[in-house]
Amino acid sequence: xxxxxxxxxxxxxxxxxxxxxxxxxxxxxxxxxxxxxxxxxxxxxxxxxxxxxxxxxxxxxxxxxxxxxxxxxxxxxxxxxxxxxxxxxxxxxxxxxxxxxxxxxxxxxxxxxxxxxxxxxxxxxxxxxxxxxxxxxxxxxxxxxxxxxxxxxxxxxxxxxxxxxxxxxxxxxxxxxxxxxxxxxxxxxxxxxxxxxxxxxxxxxxxxxxxxxxxxxxxxxxxxxxxxxxxxxxxxxxxxxxxxxxxxxxxxx
Length: 253
Description:
Blueprint: E1 21-26, E2 37-42, E3 48-49, H1 52-57, E4 65-71, E5 74-79, E6 84-89, E7 95-100, H2 101-105, E8 113-119, E9 122-127, E10 138-143, E11 149-154, E12 159-165, E13 168-173, E14 183-188, E15 193-197, E16 205-211, E17 214-219, E18 222-223, E19 229-230, E20 233-237, E21 243-248
Antiparallel strand pairs: 1-2, 2-3, 4-5, 5-6, 6-7, 8-9, 9-10, 10-11, 12-13, 13-14, 14-15, 16-17, 17-20, 18-19, 20-21
């Protein structure tokens, strides 16, 4: 077993994060040659700052901006088609570092970075990796000060969303919607072990969030011959790895 922390005997006081606004990353449209973008919404005034990354840095995010992670004093913007994670100062949005995932991990493992999360001074991010050839995707970790690779884990097929819960990282292996080998990888960064959760109800897991000790997974379901989405649902995964349905849904936050 890969069981992570299960000590619920001592109540824990958790810090409450307070935010003044929201960052929204837009993927753009690679086929139409439209770059991704970053916007900011101020909660107090309701004002929207569009193309905030480009305004701060004088350059574009690039094609298929996929995800943004807020960790410490930095923002991490994951750009799939550019094999890039932009590391920005959270207050100024100025670029501190461009992490080229193919340079860091190699041309196979580093392709198509998808999502990221911070934990214990490291940034963990998913890449499709060798999934394109029927192999494994990866969960990689870099130090948030040096931006050097710490370690890489082989996870499942076409990994996408990732979240931290109970001392572990939970990775949604989407299988690109094929429905052949979707799964959830549970990665213990202390022991470096990976466990695969396979459940008949998990068909196309994509987004992951944590509430308390539970992980919530947005499963995109499948698509019919006319590309209509069918069976999209939010599922709960408990610390004991029990999977249950919460509600139908195509978006989750």
